[in-house]
Amino acid sequence: MTLFELALKNIRRNLKTYSLYIGSTVFSILIYFTFATLKYSGDIEGMAETSKKISGVMSGSAFVLMIFVAIFILYSNSFFMKKRKKEVALYSLLGVRKKSIGLLLFFENMVIGLFSLVIGVVLGLALSNGLLSILLKLMGIEVVTGLPFSLKALLHTCLVFFVIFLGTSTLGYRVIYRFKLIELFQADKTGEAQPKAKILAALGGIIALSLAYYFALEDLLTSVVWQKLGLATPLVIIALTIVGSYLLFHSVLIYVLLALKNRPKWAWKGLRMMTASQLLYRIRGNAKTLTTIAVMSATTITAGGAVFGLYYNIDQSIDEYTPYTFMWEGQAVEIESDDIISESSFPVKYVRILEEGYEMEYALLKEQDFTQLLTRFEEQNTDALKEEEIYVVDAFYDERWSSKKEVMTIDDNEYTVAKLYDRAFWNIATVGGVAVVVPDHLYEELALEEKTIQAVEMENSKKQLALSEELASKTESFSSAPMEYQRAIESSGALLFVGSFLGLVFLVATGSIIFFKMLTEVEEDKSKYVVLRKMGVSMKDIKRTIQSQIGVIFAVPLLLGIVHSSVALMAASRLFMMDFVVPVMIWMAAYTLIYAVYYIVTVNRVMKMIMNEK
What we know:
Blueprint: H1 3-13, H2 15-40, H3 42-47, H4 54-93, H5 98-139, H6 151-178, H7 181-185, H8 199-217, H9 224-229, H10 233-261, H11 264-267, H12 272-281, H13 283-312, H14 314-321, E1 326-329, E2 340-355, E3 358-366, H15 367-376, E4 389-394, E5 407-410, E6 413-421, H16 428-431, E7 434-438, H17 440-445, E8 450-458, H18 465-472, E9 476-480, H19 481-534, H20 539-576, H21 581-612
Helix pairs in contact: 1-5, 2-4, 2-5, 2-6, 2-19, 4-6, 4-19, 5-6, 5-19, 8-10, 10-12, 10-13, 12-20, 13-19, 13-20, 13-21, 14-19, 19-20, 19-21, 20-21
C-alpha cells in the first residue's frame, strides 16, 4: 500500500471527524467563488449604472474573505494535527521514516483540501444564479438572464485555495520534525494549571470595558477625549474592548466560577462541581479563544446590523430629502398617467449671502408660497412674519455641529430669524438644502432672476422609474424619488449582500472554532466520563453537565459580543440619527439562531464521542 493510498484510507476512516471541517471549508470556498464570479461578470455592470460599484465592493470583500479563510483553515488544521500527533508518534515508534510520515500527512491535507475545493466550486456553480438573484432582489434590479460561467473566477478561486491548502499541508508535513516523540504521545494530555482569581485583573477588565463603552457613547462635539484623540479614538475604543474582554474571561469569569464552586448549596448539586472545575482547569487557554469569538461576534453583528439598518431605513431617508415624486425647474410637462395625486408649482429666487467670510447661495421663497407648501406636510404657519423677520429652512441642520442662524443680512439689511425649520419641504436636489422664507413684499422688491419649480406627487412612487427617465430627458434640475430610491437600494443592497455573506462566513468560523475546541477538550476527558458511568452516574446527568460546559463556552462570548455590538450600534444610531432597533434585533436574532444550531450540533457530537467510549 502506497502512502497516498494509506492517506485515502485514513480520510475515509475519520470522515465523521473531518465532516464539519470539510463543511466549513466548502462553505467558505462556495462564498469566495460566488464573489469571484460576480466580480468578473461583465453582465452585472451593464444591469444598472450604480451596480458598476459592485466590482470594487466584491474585490475588497474577496480579499478580506481570503485572509480570514486562510487563518480559519490554519486554525482548523492545527486542531486535527493535535488529534493526529499520537498516531504520528506511533508510526515513528514502528520505524516509519520521518519523511514518509510527513508525506502521509501532506497527502491527507492536500486530498481533504482539494476534495473541499471541488465540492465548493461545484456547489458554487449550482448556487451562483440563486445568490445572484438574492443580490439583484436586494438591489431592486430585475434580470431574466442567468449568470454565465466565469473561467477567471474558477482559476482565481482554485489558485487561492490551492495555495492555502499547500501551506497547511506543508505545516502538517513539518509536525514530525518539530516535536520529540514523547511530546507527540502526550499531546492530548497537556493542560494548564487551575488559575487563581486576580482581583486587580478583574477590576482592570471591568474598567477597560466601562471606559470603552463610555467613550463610544459620548457626544462627539462635547467629548474631551474625542477632541484630544480625534480619529484615533475609535482605535482606543477597540483596544480597550479587546483588553477588557480578555481580562473579563481571564479573571472575572474565573472569579465567578470560583465563587460558585465555593458555595456548597450550588456546587454539590448534580455534577456542578465537575462542570466548574473543568471550566476553571482550562480557563487560560479558553480566555484567548473566547476573546477572539466575542470580538468576531461583535464585529459581525455591528457591521451587519449597521448595513441592514441603513437598508431598512432607505424609505425614511428618501422621504426626508426627496418628498415629492418629481420636481424640476421650468414649465409644466404633460404627464399621461392615472397615478397623479397632485401637481403644483411655486416661484423661487436665489440670493447670495455673505456669511463668515464666505458667500453662500440660498433659495428665496415667498411667505405665502411657503405656507401652502406646509399644508402638504400637515404643518401650519401660525405666526405671520413681521417686518424685518424671516424663516430659515435647513434640511441638514443638526444641533450637534450646525451653527444656529440668529440674524441674516439680505440686500444690506439685517433680518431676524423668527423660526428655523430642520426638514425639507421640497426635493433638495432641485431647490437646495437651505432656503430663506421672506415676506411677500421683500421677495417682490429683490431684483433677482425668478425660476418656477414644478412639483408632482404620484401613487406607487417607487414604481415610476420609467416615467422618471422620460421626464429627466425633458426637464432641467430634475429630481426624482424613484431614481433616488433605486440608487440607494442598489448601493445598500450590494453592501447588505456582501455583509450578510461575510457575516455568515465569520459565524461559521466562530462556531467551528468552538466546535473544534470542545472536541479537543472532550477527547482529553473521555476517560473521566467513563469512570462516572461506571460509578452509576446516569447519562442524563452527564448530558446535563456537557450542555452546561458547552453552553458557557458558547453563550458567554455571544452575550458579550451582543453587548459590544449594542453599544457600537447605539453610537452609530445617534451619529446617523436613524432608528436601528428593529433591523438590529432581526440581525441579532438570526445570528443567535444559527449560533444555537452550532451549539446543538456540538452537544450531540460530544455525547456520541462519550457514549462510544468503552
